């Protein structure tokens, strides 16, 4: 009898340990073109993001988090591979008829987690190749519901239908289920499909990647959010995304999954500025999407992991390339054999350290052009052309104002701690800092390449063909 009791206790202890050691669920929610200043927890005075604000209050709020490039496909590639996108041959944004996509040789976050027993699903925008061999289901995702590229690449575009004559199709897995004529319900439907995925997989670990097509223009909201805020369509769109985040959090709580789920919310790059009242806000930061000034690459990022992460605000510089190695650590998953650039930021998130693991971060744009480097509080911008509104207001009614091209004649240096708005070039005042960062630039060009200077790079891996 005593032996049976002891055995029963041991079984319960083993079961309890297994339950406590269950790998956490991973939820990444990615907005498209949402700016640093678009959430009330990040300073917005016109948009009240109550669910994201609650998430920021209960979790870790990052204030120096960077997209890897200020453009769609490249920034998404970085999240899913842990590599600088130019290292793996991806830059700019793939079009509907692109012949290339993410290479089969790259291990994605979904493939890494699937190999560790996770169910995997993507709901929303993919944008890493639109030929069948590049579909999400070919790169580690069990389920896909959404669109293959940006919502403006669409023959029903209300402002410029002539730009893209292609159909924008809504897919389930590898099959198109309808042509999208009206995008009003996309945010709502993507959220509902995501909740179904949560419920279906609540008994086993899952990776849920929600990649909202909004607030990329053209902007759409469902009927319940039309004129919801009284502050314009853009504010309505962000409010619906915030409501969507609330729905996801509620679903996790209702299914008893909240304590064992890490939720990450962020944006793929800074906001369009040329659309005026249809545009987002970079907050105090300079320029926006399509530039590596702070407004183009510094975006909101909030992480919630109840019981594992204490509420905190972290201002150390980290980047989208860091999610893959961090999640590998949390889930005890095997990283890619390919060289990756991201670092495990769990010690920073958990408070074990107060320093970023990065000595420097590189910012590329266009076809493999090194535009800038951040090192500690310093940021150097290399001579190049970049787009700007040059102080002009954006357009109205969804019609953009044209950007102008500015030329940076020589390298410029900024101290982001003293001058986060990048207004005061101190290159001549700190020649030793400038010289050290220029040396870092030469090393980056040797390894990763730079079409501006003719360096091909030694370790670049090609996108698929």
Commentary on this structure:
This protein is an alpha/beta fold. The chain folds into 2 domains: 24-349, Alkaline Phosphatase, subunit A, CATH 3.40.720.10; 361-448, Arylsulfatase, C-terminal domain (2-Layer Sandwich). 25% of the residues lie in helices and 18% in strands. It is built from 10 helices and 18 strands. It has helices at residues 2-20, 50-58, 72-81, 109-114, 186-200, 233-254, 294-297, 323-331, 346-349, 431-448; strands at 25-31, 60-62, 65-66, 119-125, 143-147, 169-172, 175-179, 206-211, 261-267, 301-304, 312-314, 318-319, 361-365, 369-375, 378-381, 384-388, 404-408, 412-415. The strands form 4 sheets. Strands 7-6-5-4-8-1-9-10-2-11 form a 10-stranded mixed sheet. A 4-stranded antiparallel sheet has the order 13-14-15-18, covered by helices on one side. A hairpin with a 3-residue loop joins β13 and β14 (369-375). The chain is globular, with a radius of gyration of 22 Å. The chain starts with a helix and ends in a 17-residue tail after the last helix. The model is unreliable at 5-20 (pLDDT under 50).
